[in-house]
Write a structure and sequence with these properties.
By secondary structure, the protein is α/β, with parallel strands linked by helices. The protein is built from nine helices and eleven strands. It binds S-adenosylmethionine.
């Protein structure tokens, strides 16, 4: 099956990011005992967004180097499968998996349409993976297909406000620079080409409904007061994210 145009662009970007940052950072992330969310490492002990994972079968769509899946396996998940489209990211994930002996499984595929059997997971998870790099019309349908009835979907992405304030080049500014009307596919073709997807909040509500999901929780998250600029992801300075929410957490359940 031919892949959509943006998949190759993003694979190239993540191959570069793996070389520049994610591979070197992977061991520290896998070794981390505390579960944390997003760029500002918000502790799960404060965010309290994860459902019970003990004994659950989990698939992570766009797993990158697999550290979040590793945390979920350590927390008690019975099976964690990580899907990613970038070989370099999965090579790092597999190397860490062998080093830490956690028994995760990895699949090199487009998360918008996997070869995994339907109704085979209790939780679909994504932290800045399919949740931003895949077309929501496709990946949310795939998440619904993969989940058993009553299964849960948890995903994390940048906030809509951030997207409205991010110019074509450079970091976020303190004014709206993009229309919200028509906000869906965002393209960057500067020195780090990338294609992201970001339907607005109400459009996400509609997409979740269309895919038989019931929304359980939606959070807008700020950087903590002591946050400093992220060492690699520089689109949002800490000072901005202390005043406006730059990240979002979504939790939904597939209707039985
Ligand atoms: C930011 S990482 C997510 C992993 C991790 N939670 C993190 O925050 O670093 C984004 C991952 O999404 C993957 N990705 C991008 N497009 C994808 C697609 N169509 N299917 C599967 N994975 C994809 C990239 O290869 C990359 O490894």
């Amino acid at each position: 099956m031919t892949e959509p145009d943006y998949v190759a662009v993003n694979r190239e970007g993540w191959t570069r990011a793996n070389k520049e940052y994610t591979d070197a950072r992977a061991r520290e992330a896998w070794a981390q005992n505390e579960i944390t969310w997003g760029k500002w490492s918000l502790p799960e002990s404060e965010v309290r967004a994860l459902p019970e994972v003990t004994g659950k079968e989990i698939v992570e769509l766009g797993c990158g180097t697999g550290y979040f899946g590793a945390w979920l396996k350590r927390l008690g998940a019975s099976r964690v499968v990580g899907v990613d489209v970038t070989p370099a990211q999965l090579e790092t994930a597999q190397r860490m998996n062998e080093e830490f002996g956690l028994g995760l499984e990895f699949l090199l595929e487009n998360a918008e349409r996997t070869s995994l059997p339907g109704s085979s997971f209790d939780i679909v998870f994504s932290e800045y993976g399919a949740s931003i790099w895949c077309d929501p019309k496709l990946w949310l349908a795939e998440a619904a297909r993969l989940l058993r009835p009553g299964g849960e979907l948890i995903f994390f992405r940048g906030s809509t406000l951030q997207m409205l304030c991010v110019p074509e080049e450079g970091p976020v500014v303190e004014r709206l620079v993009r229309p919200q009307r028509g906000l869906y596919r965002l393209e960057w073709f500067d020195n780090d080409p990338a294609v992201e997807f970001h339907p607005s909040t109400s459009e996400m509500f509609a997409l979740l409904r269309e895919n038989a999901f019931q929304l359980l929780d939606f959070r807008e998250l700020f950087a903590p007061e002591d946050a400093v600029d992220h060492e690699y992801y520089d689109t949002v300075p800490a000072d901005w994210a202390k005043r406006w929410p730059d990240e979002e957490l979504w939790h939904a359940r597939k209707r039985g």
